[in-house]
Structure formats: structure tokens, C-alpha cells
């Protein structure tokens, strides 16, 4: 299979362009889509990137086993520029969107029907203007485009075990409890600490756990959502090992140290999520609990070395399942390529 990818740049609300780390990795996490694509597709991968960072990353890539994927790569500043210079044989068969301002809308206009893999598809806009959000998804839906999203935690083996037990026993989820505690000392990107640029830790990190909660609890009654936060200027909101100088960020744009939310699902179940900036060092601490009649599921450390604890009827203690080699990033890319291959075969 011949798969071409485009990486996008993200333009924030102030018009400043920032590079995202999801495509080529960053020091503080396991995220790196290019690494998984290279191992999944090998020489079948051909890459057309759209980011200045590509020039630095490409020189490293060309020294590895995936030289053939990157040796003829050209760098385009915009999607329209790429559309103008690409030949019919270079027309993308799939597009990987790291982040981008209306990238999906542009792609559906320039390359209608091209399968998309969209990393963290969070739409931002004026509060209450839901129509603006749906304008992004509508052309994808209207053209019946294959579209996978980068909520990789759904692809964890432990998550699928939970899902299977719930479905096999016809269980009804009654509560989800999610906690994401990050090691802030390793986060040295100034934009991450600025709400006007990266929109805060719930968008940057917590959205993955919001999605995972919905994966088990179902749709949320949005009118029921309530949240509290511990702000940077409160006495217990001070952090002693920040890697950035927060004084260079406008006070109104500094991010909260804790955000805690609760809601009702449309099914009647209850959900909670708490995001905390408190740990130092590099290791995060993340957990998700899911409850049903007679059952407790607790997924621990999903990003690095997932462990699933299960208590079920007839047991007073928890059973334990470990998945030390699980790589949900690779699993989600694998599922996307399978869907893509199926689509291409259907089209002949």
C-alpha cells in the first residue's frame, strides 16, 4: 500500500504558528506517529510534510532504515501549495493531520474523500457556538470519508479486555472515575503553559481521558458538567520546579494547577475527571476506574506499562493483568491502515 502523509502546523487564536510534537516525538512522552508509521509501512510510506521542523527531522530520518520514505520529500508551506505542485501520481492516498487550523476542511476541499487520520480532533471556537465545531466535521461526514482519530488509549489491550467483559456480561456502566497527574518538571515548552496558545492542560492532555471516559460511559449530558480549578495565583497553586519562566506569560493566560469536573452521562451514569500538575521528575500517574453492578475495573499507568485490576462477583480481591509491551499508538495506526486498505480494495 502506498500511503502519503502530510504533517500540519497549528495556528492558535493569536495567529502564531507552533509546531506540535505528535509527529516526530518529544522528550517527555511516547508519542511519535512517524515512528509507528515507519514500522508499519516500511518502504511503502512516502511522506510530504508541511512544517519547518521537517527539515531538521528529515536529515535524521534519512540516516535510518526508512530512507526510501523520506529521500524525495518536498516541503510545502501550505496545503494549497502542495495541491498545486503535486502530480497525479503524488496525490495522497491518506493524510495524517497532526494539528491544524481548519486542516480537515481544506483537505476535503482539495482532496475530497481522501482518508484522514486526525490527531486529537479538538475544535476550539467561541463558547456556545456549536455550529462552528460541526462545520469542521460535516464535509468529512458528507463525503463518507474514512476518518480515524488519535485517541490512542481506546486501543490499549487492557481497555479492550474491559470492553469485552462489559459486553459479554451485558453490564451497564454506572460510574467512571478518571485521574491524570502529570510530571510538570519535564514540560519545558512555554506554549504548553499559556492558555492563549495551547488552551490549557485539559486540551493538551486531559482530552484523552475525557474520550476514554466516554468510551465506557457513553454520551455526556453537557448541561450537567460542572468544574472547579486551583489557579496559579492561589497559595497552594505555587510550583517549585517549573522549567519555564511563567512571569513571561500574561497572568490571565497562566494555566490552572488542578482542574476537576463531574457530569452525568445520558444513560444516567456519573463521571468525574481530575487533572493535576503536581508531580516532579518524568513519570506520570494516570488511572481510570469503571464501575458496573458487581464489577470494578481499574486501569493504571496506561501510557507506559498498562496494568488492569478487575474485581468481579464472587471475588473479594482484585485480579491483575499486565500489558508491559502494549503500544496503543502502533495499534491505532495499524487499525487505520487496515481500514484504508479495505477502502482502497473496495474502490478497485
UniProtKB/TrEMBL annotation:
PANTHER family: D-GLUCOSIDE 3-DEHYDROGENASE (PTHR43249:SF1), UDP-N-ACETYL-2-AMINO-2-DEOXY-D-GLUCURONATE OXIDASE (PTHR43249). SUPFAM superfamilies: Glyceraldehyde-3-phosphate dehydrogenase-like, C-terminal domain (SSF55347). It comes from Coprinellus micaceus. Residues 154-295 form the Oxidoreductase putative C-terminal domain. This is Oxidoreductase putative C-terminal domain-containing protein. It holds the Pfam family ox_reductase_C. InterPro entries: Gfo/Idh/MocA_Oxidoreductase, OxRdtase_put_C.
Amino acid at each position: 500500500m502506498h500511503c502519503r502523509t502530510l504533517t500540519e502546523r497549528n495556528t492558535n487564536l493569536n495567529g502564531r504558528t507552533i509546531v506540535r510534537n505528535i509527529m516526530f516525538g518529544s522528550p517527555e512522552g511516547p508519542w511519535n506517529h512517524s515512528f509507528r508509521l515507519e514500522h508499519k509501512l516500511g518502504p511503502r510510506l512516502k511522506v510530504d510534510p508541511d512544517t519547518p521542523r521537517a527539515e531538521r527531522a528529515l536529515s535524521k530520518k534519512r540516516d535510518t532504515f526508512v530512507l526510501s520514505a523520506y529521500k524525495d520529500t518536498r516541503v510545502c508551506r501550505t496545503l494549497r501549495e502542495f495541491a498545486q505542485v503535486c502530480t497525479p501520481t503524488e496525490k495522497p492516498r491518506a493524510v495524517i493531520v497532526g494539528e491544524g487550523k481548519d486542516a480537515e476542511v481544506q483537505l476535503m476541499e482539495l482532496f475530497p474523500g481522501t482518508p484522514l487520520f486526525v490527531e486529537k480532533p479538538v475544535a476550539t471556537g467561541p463558547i456556545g457556538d456549536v455550529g462552528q465545531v460541526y462545520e469542521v466535521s460535516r464535509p468529512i461526514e458528507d463525503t463518507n470519508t474514512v476518518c480515524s482519530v488519535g485517541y490512542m488509549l481506546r486501543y490499549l489491550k487492557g481497555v479492550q479486555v474491559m470492553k469485552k467483559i462489559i459486553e459479554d456480561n451485558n453490564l451497564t456502566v454506572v460510574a467512571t472515575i478518571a485521574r491524570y497527574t502529570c510530571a510538570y518538571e519535564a514540560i519545558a515548552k512555554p506554549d504548553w503553559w499559556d492558555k492563549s496558545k495551547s488552551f490549557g492542560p485539559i486540551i493538551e492532555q486531559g482530552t484523552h481521558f475525557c474520550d476514554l471516559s466516554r468510551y465506557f460511559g457513553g454520551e455526556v449530558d453537557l448541561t450537567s458538567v460542572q468544574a472547579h480549578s486551583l489557579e496559579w495565583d492561589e497559595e497552594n497553586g505555587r510550583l517549585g520546579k517549573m522549567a519555564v519562566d511563567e512571569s513571561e506569560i500574561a497572568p490571565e493566560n497562566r494555566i490552572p494547577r488542578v482542574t476537576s469536573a463531574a457530569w452525568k452521562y445520558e444513560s444516567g451514569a456519573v463521571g468525574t475527571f481530575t487533572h493535576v500538575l503536581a508531580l516532579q521528575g518524568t513519570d506520570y500517574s494516570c488511572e481510570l476506574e469503571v464501575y458496573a453492578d458487581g464489577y470494578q475495573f481499574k486501569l493504571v499507568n496506561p501510557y507506559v506499562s498498562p496494568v488492569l485490576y478487575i474485581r468481579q462477583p464472587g471475588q473479594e480481591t482484585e485480579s491483575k493483568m499486565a500489558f508491559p509491551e502494549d503500544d496503543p499508538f502502533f495499534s491505532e495506526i495499524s487499525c487505520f491502515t487496515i481500514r484504508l486498505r479495505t477502502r482502497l480494495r473496495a474502490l478497485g
